């Protein structure tokens, strides 16, 4: 058996560094590495790697991501469930119903009052037309100097 | 109960019931770890920031499937890791070459003189990590930076503990080799 075959594989040394070897295997490997010119530097390299990793800086995002994630979740929910979105839209229409009813009543009232004014002005207009006629007995302005002047039959 | 007290699992149950405030608490607890992991997987602050949010949105959507037996952190890292690999695939930076089995490298270790050059080694380590295959990078980050056990790593990467053990050894050997080659 050659020296290389007698040496434990890197896998075992890696597990040793991680503390993932069971007790009897760990003790045996420790004893082997202590006297092995091949395995000792391999184990030292693995341990150095661990030291270097421990010294790595710990970068952070620098912002609170919770509100951003919350917004994305809400947006994704709206896309995934458009029915719910349309339901909420219909609800808004119902909320507008009282205002729409009030508007309709106002329009109706306006139309009623408007038509009453137009009818009134037509009646007044007829009288004016009569009064302004060129050959009527009633003078312009409907001012009669005497009762007979405006009503010739009474003469 | 104070705003941020209690184990993750309590907050996850509340979030499962639709409490978005509880989920926000989970985001705050784990955003640094997920961001750090994605940053080293992708090498870009902007991408890491974007994908950290993606990972949390996916986690929210997958919450109904979460089981109390699963540790929330490992479950979340599994989502984050898949998100990272998807992004790397999209970038076409990943070539899924099968890893060599039966790696054995006694005698290929570093020069003992390298010990004691910690600061320089740390700088080199960042560069060497970027050159490492994603399959190796992910497992090393989970072990060395996130300090997960073999069992937890197995859950994140869907591997048996035996495979975790062997892949970690290969990843370390590959990193040491890249490290050694990059030395002047």
Task: Describe what you observe in this structure.
The complex is a heterodimer of chains A (about 160) and B (about 180). Helices cover about 70% and strands about 0% of the residues of chain A. Chain A has about 160 residues and is an all-alpha fold. Among the domains of chain A are: about 5-55, no CATH class; about 75-115. In chain A, helix 2 (about 10-20) crosses helix 4 (about 40-55). The radius of gyration of chain A is 52 Å and the shape is rod-shaped. Chain B is mainly alpha-helical and about 180 residues long. Chain B has two domains: about 10-90, Orthogonal Bundle (Rna Polymerase Sigma Factor, Chain: A); about 110-180, Winged helix-like DNA-binding domain superfamily/Winged helix DNA-binding domain (Arc Repressor Mutant, subunit A, Orthogonal Bundle). Chain B is about 70% helix and about 0% strand. The longest helix of chain B has 23 residues, at about 20-40. Chain B is globular. Mean pLDDT of chain B is about 85; it is low at about 95-110. At the A-B interface, helix 2, helix 4 and helix 5 of A face helix 2, helix 3, helix 5, helix 6 and helix 8 of B.
Topology, please?
The complex is a heterodimer of chains A (155) and B (184).
Chain A lengths: L2 H4 L3 H9 L4 H12 L4 H16 L11 H15 L1 H51 L14 H4 L5
Helix pairs in contact in A: 2-4
Chain B lengths: L7 H9 L3 H23 L2 H18 L9 H20 L26 H14 L2 H12 L4 H8 L3 H21 L3
Helix pairs in contact in B: 1-2, 2-3, 2-4, 3-4, 4-7, 6-8, 7-8
**Kindly state the mean pLDDT of chain B as a whole number?**
85
Enumerate how many helices of chain B there are, as a single number.
Answer: 8
The chain pair with the largest interface is: A-B, 43 and 54 residues
Q: Which ranges of chain B are low-confidence, i.e. pLDDT below 50, for 5 or more consecutive residues?
A: 97-112
The shape of chain B, in one word, is globular
Measured on Cα atoms, how large is the radius of gyration of chain B? 18 Å
* CA(first)-CA(last) distance of chain B: 57 Å
* Mean pLDDT, all residues of chain A: 77
CATH class designation of the largest domain in chain B: Mainly Alpha
Number of helices of chain A: 7
- Beta-strand content bin of chain A: under 5%
The helix content of chain B is 55-70%
Structural class designation of chain B: mainly alpha
* Helix percent band of chain A: over 70%
Number of strands of chain A: 0
Measured between the Cα atoms of the first and last residue of chain A, the distance is: 160 Å
């Amino acid at each position: 058996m050659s020296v290389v075959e007698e040496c434990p594989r890197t896998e075992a040394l890696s597990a040793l560094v991680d503390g993932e070897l069971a007790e009897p295997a760990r003790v045996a490997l420790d004893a082997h590495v202590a006297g092995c010119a091949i395995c000792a530097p391999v184990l030292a390299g693995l341990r150095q790697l661990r030291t270097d990793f421990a010294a790595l800086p710990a970068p952070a995002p620098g912002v609170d991501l919770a509100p951003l994630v919350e917004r994305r979740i809400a947006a994704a929910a709206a896309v995934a469930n458009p029915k719910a979105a349309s339901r909420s839209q219909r609800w808004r229409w119902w909320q507008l119903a009282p205002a729409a009813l009030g508007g309709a009543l106002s329009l109706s009232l306006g139309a009623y009052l408007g038509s009453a004014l137009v009818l009134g002005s037509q009646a007044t207009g007829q009288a004016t037309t009569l009064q302004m006629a060129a050959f009527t007995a009633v003078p312009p302005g409907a001012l009669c100097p005497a009762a007979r002047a405006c009503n010739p039959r009474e003469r | 109960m104070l705003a941020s007290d209690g184990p993750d699992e309590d907050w996850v149950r509340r979030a499962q019931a639709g409490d978005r405030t509880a989920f926000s608490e989970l985001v705050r607890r784990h955003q640094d770890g997920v961001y750090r992991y994605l940053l080293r997987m992708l090498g870009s602050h902007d991408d890491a920031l974007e994908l950290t949010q993606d990972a949390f949105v996916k986690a929210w959507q997958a919450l109904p499937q979460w089981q109390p037996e699963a540790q929330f952190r490992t479950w979340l890292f599994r989502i984050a890791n898949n998100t990272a690999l998807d992004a790397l695939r999209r970038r076409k930076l990943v070539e899924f070459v099968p890893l060599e089995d039966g790696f054995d490298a006694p005698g290929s270790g570093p020069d003992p003189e390298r010990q004691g050059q910690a600061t320089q080694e740390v700088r080199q380590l960042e560069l060497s990590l970027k050159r490492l295959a994603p399959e190796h990078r992910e497992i090393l980050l989970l072990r060395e930076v996130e300090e997960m056990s073999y069992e937890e790593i197995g859950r994140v990467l869907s591997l048996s503990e035996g495979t975790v053990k062997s892949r970690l050894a290969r990843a370390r050997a590959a990193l040491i080799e890249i490290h050694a080659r990059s030395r002047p």
